[in-house]
Amino acid sequence: MQDQTDLDEVWFIVSPQNPLKSSKSLLHEFDRLKMVELATADHFKFKVKDTEFHMPRPSYTIDTLTYLSEQYPTHDFSLILGGDNLNHFHKWKNSEELLNQYKIYVYPRPGKSKDLKHKNIHFVEAPLLDISATFIRKTISKGGSVKYLLHPHVMDYIRDKKFFI
């Protein structure tokens, strides 16, 4: 996304609780934050933020973007989505407001995604990778290798913590 768009930086906002997912299915928020920090540490244009850790839960994207826009008034924020998220984007809190106020960059994902047309939606031309967190977790739990799918420091962290085993 960094290379295919006009984004100056990519901020990774780790969410303690996605309102569309069961919190029971997620690793602890601080472990997820740590893994994102490990995965992005050597990229100077990547920033990891725990903004939603300090906000009411569950976290809603519109609230987070509004908060960030207020805290960083010189920044123009955008949203990066996987194409599969367009299928249920209409369920998001204030989805129309999101569409009207922020650029949305859409990365292609396998399967059919809704073809939402809006001036702020930008489909990015990028390789179609059929890799998901679910696939990675299942592969690890079966003892398989994810050597080329995860940053080595993230894999070390997962192994040390005995996640998905």
UniProtKB/TrEMBL annotation:
InterPro entries given in the database record: Cyt_trans-like, NadD/NMNAT, Rossmann-like_a/b/a_fold
Keyword check for Transferase: yes
Gene3D superfamilies cross-referenced by the UniProt entry: HUPs (3.40.50.620)
Pfam families for the chain: CTP_transf_like (PF01467)
Gene, per the UniProt record: nadD
GO BP: NAD+ biosynthetic process
Protein name: nicotinate-nucleotide adenylyltransferase
Family, similarity comment: Belongs to the NadD family.
Protein species of origin: Cyclobacterium qasimii
Chain's role: Catalyzes the reversible adenylation of nicotinate mononucleotide (NaMN) to nicotinic acid adenine dinucleotide (NaAD).
